[in-house]
Amino acid sequence: MSNLDRQASLSVCGGRGFVVAEPVRELLAPRRVQLGESTEVRRLLPNLGRRMVGAWCFVDHYGPDDIADEPGMQVPPHPHMGLQTVSWLHEGEVLHRDSVGSLQTIRPRELGLMTSGQAISHSEESPRSHARFLHGAQLWVALPEAHRHVEPHFQHHPELPQVTAAGLTATVILGDLDGAASPGTAYTPITGADLALTRGTETRLPLEPDFEYAVLSMSGEAHVDGVPLLPGSMLYLGCGRTELPLRAESDAGLMLLGGEPFDEEIVMWWNFIGRTNEEIRQARSDWMTGPRFGEVKGYDGDPLAAPELPPVPLKPRGRVR
């Protein structure tokens, strides 16, 4: 999914300077962003209070939207570099096309994982014949220096491992959780899991004390470490935890995001992740004028134009604003 903000700002994030070494309960409110003509998303990362959780650097939550009489998601071809995109649905379908020739319909609780490496472009759209409701999340993972120039590729995994307990089903999307490992390729120590809780469930989820974590609420009402969490909000949890108490007031859906704090400082702007201002400027120029990002074939429409870069020099701000 693209960042369609026409006032995209340059920022530097990453590094361990602002990682919270002990458990905390930091509630992150979303920013509402219009995605195309018919989809509004709630942006949780980057946030006014925090830019990254492990290598997770971008989180949009959308829906559930009634698109029975609407076109649904319509995101034209756009570029990415230096990151992985993770597509995760609870309802609906998204048709993915990219410049390496992938054509895949992603359905609920199937992993669509695109690794941009040095350059890729893709589009995302609701199929013409689609389900009534669209509900999901789009996330980005920053690639570390050793792997950020890998060949671009796309993976689709319809079957994913699960961890279960009374009233809890945890589907491992990326990385590892309680001994279960996702088949998706990860380039940094990371955890991404979908948590489905039934009403009245009280349980504790095992965590890695060296990871930092956050929980995104997708649906229902649950208490995470005693904090009530409503859909479209995220709770940052810091590091130093060996388990996470969960209590469901209703049937609820959550996403657990975590990983080792990301050592490197990265520059994020629009749909690019690099290391310097100059690298980002070159990527923008390449998207607008050259073949570097390839062609998305089969999409009925023009690719997105990049917004204008700000004239001010880049000012490092770390992991938090």
UniProtKB/TrEMBL annotation:
Secretion signal span: none
Start and end residues of each Pirin C-terminal domain: 193-293
InterPro entries recorded: Pirin, Pirin_C_dom, Pirin_N_dom, RmlC-like_jellyroll, RmlC_Cupin_sf
Domain Pirin N-terminal: 41-141
SUPFAM superfamilies xrefs: RmlC-like cupins (SSF51182)
Residues covered by region (Disordered): 298-321
CDD domains, per database record: cupin_pirin_C
Family recorded in the similarity comment: Belongs to the pirin family.
Stated name of the protein: Pirin family protein
Upper classification of the organism: Bacteria, Bacillati, Actinomycetota, Actinomycetes, Kitasatosporales
